[in-house]
Amino acid sequence: MKPLPLSVRLAAGLAVTAVEQARKLPGQLAGLPVTVVSEALQLSMRLQQRVTELAIKGDDALSVLRPVEQEPEWATFDEDEPEVRAEDPWAEEEQALAAEPPAVLPNYDELSLAQLRARLRTLTAEDLEELLAHERTHAARPEFTGMLTRRIANLKQQ
Questions:
Q1: Arithmetic mean of pLDDT over the chain
Q2: What domain of life does the native source organism fall in (predicted)?
């Protein structure tokens, strides 16, 4: 028997493939949304990578025009910080026990920062100086000393 022409054999192969794919279609439809989302995410990631690569190349090209600061002003390093010496914890406790609360606000040491802020407008500059001196000699909390110092400066400007 003589073989069939190539075009007939190709047509038969295409028909069989179409039938096979049609049988697989219901199973593939269930996974189609996942496949589409996956492809979209992959495309998005490739796009982000390409944008990042372009930005890096741009930074390299522009670095010639704008040199990088050797040490940014906001950078702090351990050697720039003042050395903190450990003091006797018993001396601190004795000082705290012997300390009298400021007469202006007898419960000052128990106040939170927000509670103190709420009372600042009612105090005079002298009262604030007394609180600042008390804070510096006792707890020396930076946020408290900063707030008191700023309030005193504001009152002196007025």
A1: 84
A2: Bacteria
Question: What count of other Cβ atoms lies within 10 Å of the Cβ of residue 60?
Answer: 9
Of 94, 97, 96, 111, the residue nearest 148 (C-alpha): 111
Rounded CA-CA distance 57/127 in Å is 59
Contact 135, 145 (CB under 8 A): yes
- Condensed to tens digits (0 to 9), the pLDDT of residues 104-147 reads 888 888 889 899 899 988 999 999 999 998 889 888 899 999 99
pLDDT at residue 85 greater than cutoff 80: no
Confidence at residue 158, expressed as pLDDT on a 0 to 100 scale: 82
DSSP the chain: -PPPPHHHHHHHHHHHHHHHHHHHHHHHHHHHHHHHHHHHHHHHHHHHHHHHHHHHHHHHHHTTTSPPPSS-TT---GGGSPPPPP--HHHHHHHHHHPPPPSS-TTGGG--HHHHHHHGGGS-HHHHHHHHHHHHHTT--HHHHHHHHHHHHHHHH-
CB 148 within 8 A of CB 121: no
